[in-house]
Amino acid sequence: MEIKNYINGKFTAPASGEYLDNINPSMGKPYGKIPDSDGRDVAMAVSAAKMAFPEWSRTPRNKRGEYLVKIAEGIEAKLDFLAKAESKDNGKPVSLAKSIDIPRAAKNFRFYGTAIMHAHSQSHYMEEGAINYTLKQPIGVAGCISPWNLPLYLFSWKIAPALAAGNTVVAKPSEITPATAFLLSEICKEIGLPPGVLNIVHGLGQKVGQAITEHPEVPVISFTGGTLTGAGIAQTAAPMFKKLSLELGGKNPNIIFADCKFEDMLDTTLRSSFANQGQICLCGSRILVERSIYNRFKEAFVARTRELKVGPPNKEDSDLGAIVSRPHFEKIQSYINLAKEEGGSILTGGKAIKMSGEFKEGYYLEPTIIEGLDQACRTNQEEIFGPVVTLQAFDTEEEALAMANSTRFGLASTVWTQDLSRAHRMGEALHAGIVWVNTWLLRDLRTPFGGVKDSGMGREGGFEALDFFTEPKNICIKYR
Ligand code: NAP
């Protein structure tokens, strides 16, 4: 696949003329090239987006919505192809890309393509003989920067509301997983999206991401990625008073009370621990279990984890595929070593797996369960973002809550209990933007999505995202 930038409706080579290797993590080998773009490409993309803004922002919302729905249809028509491309680029099983990533990307476009037709604003009547009404106006050129773990899914989660609200976009996918963003640009071309409305610039975060963040004509930035990167973006953007949405890292607790429906909890905990090789920001990496069922849970969970099949992502029966990149593979292994140094016992997993044949250089890791660690240790405080979970026992609800809330993060939490009052108490007290009770990853696109503390600021999802990508303006008219 020869990946190109998509600027002003054209497929373009990077200004530098340089390319980076695009690695297939299941084989540990390059399989293509991606543009090593820089500030010059970003400047061209911003100027194209600026030129396209007046007309796009004045295009009636139903017409903008129609374009987005056409993009959704374009994605759906290429489901198999896109799922295979996502799997090859990212290492995730094709089955996962086909059932979750790609359908969800299409849903994001359809959701915002239709949501914009239902968006409303406010009007306030005053007895003095005046009326106020609030315009929600698109802001201009939106910068959208996304990570590698759910490439097209998260890319579309930003682009769709930004475009629906009437902004034009300069977007950067992760350099590690650029393929489906490039294929999206082909779909945009096919459906006739006007030039300059969406521009996609490929390349490194330090160059392309930084140039988008620094650009004075990009007044609004939606970023998903690591907490440290987010902090850097906030520092760059703050003096320019840019509007920012930051969706950052997590260290999510999965809290299991003794009165839970055990089998449901076990099935879901297996997914919430290891889906996408544990590389979902919402995965529950700290499993807290009420002491009276700790041993029963541990035995069953370890047994079920050992049954999971790690294999090439293109094989139908692989439950886990490859880790996304060599540096990330090494980072996860370093955390497994740290856990041992901190006194943890590996109950299962902990090792890299060598596949055979063409997959022998791929980055495969066993799903790993660790116990015996204190809540305060680094393994239980820092985000690992891989197929690694820890187990800890608790005695009371208060203790579970204190453990759950004891990290710098606050993205998502899961609670397993049949006690309705306790579910509400926990929901209220957990430091998290999202709390799931007796389920995980059940998403209604109308709901707010995001985190507290070091997990970020702002919310995506539903009308929250449309609000984020618009600026409210109150107009007060005196008529008496
Ligand atoms: P990352 O290293 O922070 O990168 C995220 C994006 O930012 C990538 O496109 C990256 O480009 C770019 N970037 C890097 N440096 C930049 C800079 N100085 N200025 C602007 N952009 C820059 O994160 P990642 O490793 O891709 O993703 C994993 C992280 O994302 C985890 O912490 C995970 O929890 C978090 N995440 C959060 C959510 C959420 O909704 N809260 C969802 C998914 C993932 P390159 O990759 O091309 O260098």
Instruction: Provide the CATH top-level class of the largest domain.
Output: Alpha Beta
CATH architectural category of the largest domain: 3-Layer(aba) Sandwich
> How many helix segments?
15
Percent helix, as a range, is 25-40%
Q: Low-confidence runs (pLDDT<50, min 5 residues)?
A: none
Shape: globular
Give the CATH superfamily of the largest domain.
Aldehyde Dehydrogenase, Chain A, domain 1
Output the strand order for the largest sheet: 14-17-18-13-12-19-20
Number of strands: 22
User: What is the distance, rounded to the nearest whole angstrom, between the alpha carbons of the first and last residues?
Assistant: 66 Å
Helix-strand category: alpha/beta
Small ligands present = NADP nicotinamide-adenine-dinucleotide phosphate
Might you state the CATH topology name of the largest domain?
Aldehyde Dehydrogenase, Chain A, domain 1
